[in-house]
Design goal:
CATH architecture: 3-Layer(aba) Sandwich
CATH superfamily: P-loop containing nucleotide triphosphate hydrolases
Number of helices: 10
Radius of gyration: 17 Å
Bound molecules: adenosine-5'-diphosphate, magnesium ion
Number of domains: 1
CATH topology: Rossmann fold
Order of helices and strands: EEEHEEHEHHHHEHEHEEHH
Shape: globular
Strand order of the largest sheet: 6-7-8-3-9-10
């Protein structure tokens, strides 16, 4: 569904990604792992059209999106939950949900009601301000907002960062349910156990390149690679 081939991107003159290739297949979850600073977030930003593709290509459904604007990439069906979550602090939960999401057609899979069913906690917090939410509630809101776009590909950047273990388990179960429902996902994570218990395929990025690819089972069994590239 999404294919990066020999991607090069970076910030201004600074190239950070040096020829990265990867593939996310329909109905599956791909985890992108790697140490801090390896280039995971930079890769996602390039996919979303937030950084220029200096060389190589990004294809979604076989069509290049390397020069497509972020708004149009979102309209094609790629939703992005950034590391920073980007909740509007002065808007209510309901406003945060409905502002960014296009008004879903009546037959859409994800409507406001369905998102509230999926995250009951958000339903209890609808009129609270974005600045009144816990970290876990913010993450649920960020995911809920992405789902309201009825994406075909959901991209999550470190959804468990800074969350308590009990909340991490809740997020885990929600992502497992989305996977069960057939949603294609790309997950960037520092939490190795979390990522490999959910993902089908794993790619490890080191210094802006792919250094290992394989299944979750294979990387769990490969302590040498874990140690070398993840510091696990
Ligand atoms: N806005 C920026 N301007 C310049 N360099 C950046 C910027 N953001 C990140 N970098 C650099 O790009 C590299 C990869 O960062 P990043 O993609 O955020 O890593 P990761 O998400 O894997 O932790 C790092 O060396 C980082 O310092
Ligand atoms: Mg990052």
């Amino acid at each position: 569904m999404l294919e990066l081939s020999a991607l090069e991107t970076g910030y201004g003159e600074t190239r950070v990604i040096h020829g990265l290739s990867l593939e996310a297949q329909a109905g599956r979850m791909l985890a992108i792992l790697g140490r801090n600073g390896a280039g995971k977030t930079t890769t996602l930003k390039a996919v979303m059209g937030l950084l220029p593709v200096t060389s190589g290509d990004i294809r979604f459904d076989g069509h290049s999106i390397a020069k497509t604007k972020p708004y149009d990439i979102a309209r094609l069906g790629v939703a992005y939950v950034p590391e920073t979550r980007d909740i509007f602090p002065s808007l209510t939960v309901k406003e945060n949900l409905t502002l960014a999401g296009r008004t879903a057609p009546a037959n859409a899979e994800w409507t406001l009601d369905r998102v509230i069913d999926f995250f009951p906690r958000l339903g209890e917090r609808l009129s609270n301000g974005g600045n009144q939410l816990s970290g876990g509630e913010q993450q649920m809101l960020a995911i809920g907002r992405a789902l309201l776009m009825n994406p075909r590909l959901l991209i999550l950047d470190e959804p468990t960062e800074g969350l308590a273990p009990i909340i991490v388990r809740q997020i885990h179960d929600k992502l497992a349910a989305l996977k069960e429902a057939g949603l294609t996902m790309i997950l960037v994570e520092q939490n190795f156990g979390f990522a490999t218990s959910l993902a089908d395929e794993v790619i490890i990025v080191g210094r802006g390149k792919s250094v290992w690819t394989g299944s979750s089972d294979a990387i769990r069994a490969d302590s040498e690679t874990q140690h070398k590239w993840l510091g696990v």
